[in-house]
């Protein structure tokens, strides 16, 4: 058995990790950001144990595609009267190829893509409660690129901040307009936090492994390290190595967008509850200018100068990943 405790092909595992880490963008994320550990997540770290042990099952909604469209556009109308017109200018453009369907039990692909001047838009929400967030999320991508004349955010890892903030305040909109019960809205909020924690754990586990060994990682390094662990810790370590080398974690650079988006939007949401006007002004500025903004400038704008304290990590900080290698097996 490849990943068992009695017979482990460390060379094979190391080759998988090294092949994946040859992606320069992935290297940049791991080099530029400290590990996003669940223990560093502000305000929600206490939810880790209960989220992982008793994750709530989301119920279903009964909204049709037309209902979801109307709700989404009315929501954007309340935020800013110009937003719906900008979204519709893309949806109604002859250069837009739009494929959409009524909500189904299993969600299809949902994305916004561009090929030159052409727009490719896939909208296939699910009847799962989380499906109500699909349209506001994807429409935010449209809005962001329409405002900036189809320019993408300068840094890939800030590409989901706006959309994930929209998700949070759209849930409030649904609750305030009694579209969905308060109980179901809270279930949705909890699900967003649980997803953030799960994504952060995967990034943290990958980062620990990546930064704890000399590059390139070889089988001998893995074997020497694992053999000095107790059987219990060895099992945990091997589990993390499996995650590092399986297909789910291959898009770490992409997944980092959702961790960053979750962390920053969480902080924005708390500020929004206290001061919605100022927060929405910052959001609007971010939508208009993030194609020219650095990661640090984005963090400062949306979370203030103390962003490192609020978010739980800083840029180009090495103190965390230089700590004892056994920290790899201490993350739950």
Topology pattern, helix = H, strand = E: HHHHHEEEHHHHHHHHH
Total beta strand runs: 3
Give the CA-CA distance, first to last residue. Answer: 24 Å
Shape designation: globular
β-strand percent reads under 5%
Structural class: mainly alpha
Total DSSP helices: 14
Radius of gyration, CA atoms, in whole angstroms: 21 Å
Low-confidence stretches: 1-6, 24-55, 247-251, 316-332
Main β sheet profile: 3 strands, mixed
What percent of residues adopt helix (DSSP H or I)? 55-70%
Kindly report the spatial arrangement of strands forming the biggest sheet. 1-3-2
Average pLDDT works out at: 75
Structure write-up:
This protein is mainly α. The chain has a domain at 10-52 and 189-330. 57% of the residues lie in helices and 5% in strands. It is built from 14 helices and 3 strands. The chain has helices at 10-21, 24-32, 48-53, 65-79, 82-91, 134-147, 161-176, 182-212, 219-227, 231-245, 252-274, 276-289, 295-303, 307-311, and strands at residues 96-100, 111-115, 118-123. A 3-stranded mixed sheet has the order 1-3-2. α1 (10-21) packs across α9 (219-227) and α6 (134-147) packs across α7. It is globular, with a radius of gyration of 21 Å.
What is the gist of this entry?
The protein is 57% helix and 5% strand. By secondary structure, the chain is mainly alpha-helical.
Topology:
Blueprint: H1 10-21, H2 24-32, H3 48-53, H4 65-79, H5 82-91, E1 96-100, E2 111-115, E3 118-123, H6 134-147, H7 161-176, H8 182-212, H9 219-227, H10 231-245, H11 252-274, H12 276-289, H13 295-303, H14 307-311
Parallel strand pairs: 1-3
Antiparallel strand pairs: 2-3
Helix pairs in contact: 1-9, 1-10, 5-6, 6-7, 7-8, 7-11, 8-10, 8-11, 11-12
């Amino acid at each position: 058995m490849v990943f068992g405790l009695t017979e482990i092909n460390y060379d094979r595992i190391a080759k998988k990790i090294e092949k994946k880490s040859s992606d320069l963008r992935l290297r940049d994320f791991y080099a530029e950001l400290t590990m996003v550990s669940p223990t560093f997540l502000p305000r929600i770290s206490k939810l880790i144990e209960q989220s992982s042990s008793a994750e709530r099952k989301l119920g279903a909604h009964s909204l049709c595609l037309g209902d979801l469209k109307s709700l989404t556009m009315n929501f954007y109308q309340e935020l800013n009267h110009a937003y719906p017109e900008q979204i519709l200018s893309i949806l109604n453009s002859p250069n837009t190829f739009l494929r959409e369907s009524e909500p189904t039990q299993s969600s299809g692909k949902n994305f916004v893509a561009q090929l030159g001047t052409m727009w490719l838009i896939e909208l296939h929400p699910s009847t799962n409660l989380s499906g109500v967030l699909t349209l506001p999320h994807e429409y935010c991508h449209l809005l962001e690129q329409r405002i900036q004349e189809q320019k993408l955010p300068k840094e890939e890892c800030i590409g989901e901040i706006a959309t994930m903030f929209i998700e949070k305040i759209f849930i409030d909109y649904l609750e305030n307009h009694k579209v969905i019960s308060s109980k179901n809205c809270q279930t949705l909020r909890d699900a967003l936090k649980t997803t953030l924690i799960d994504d952060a754990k995967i990034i943290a586990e990958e980062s620990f492994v990546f930064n704890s060994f000399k590059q390139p990682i070889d089988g001998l390094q893995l074997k020497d390290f694992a053999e000095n662990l107790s059987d219990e810790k060895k099992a945990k370590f091997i589990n993390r190595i499996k995650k590092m080398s399986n297909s789910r974690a291959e898009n770490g650079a992409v997944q980092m967008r959702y961790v960053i988006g979750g962390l920053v939007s969480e902080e924005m949401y708390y500020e929004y509850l206290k001061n919605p006007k100022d927060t929405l002004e910052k959001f609007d500025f971010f939508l208009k200018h993030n194609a020219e903004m650095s990661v640090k400038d984005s963090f400062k704008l949306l979370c203030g100068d103390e962003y490192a304290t609020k978010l739980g990590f800083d840029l180009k900080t090495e103190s965390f990943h230089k700590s004892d290698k056994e920290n790899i097996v201490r993350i739950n």
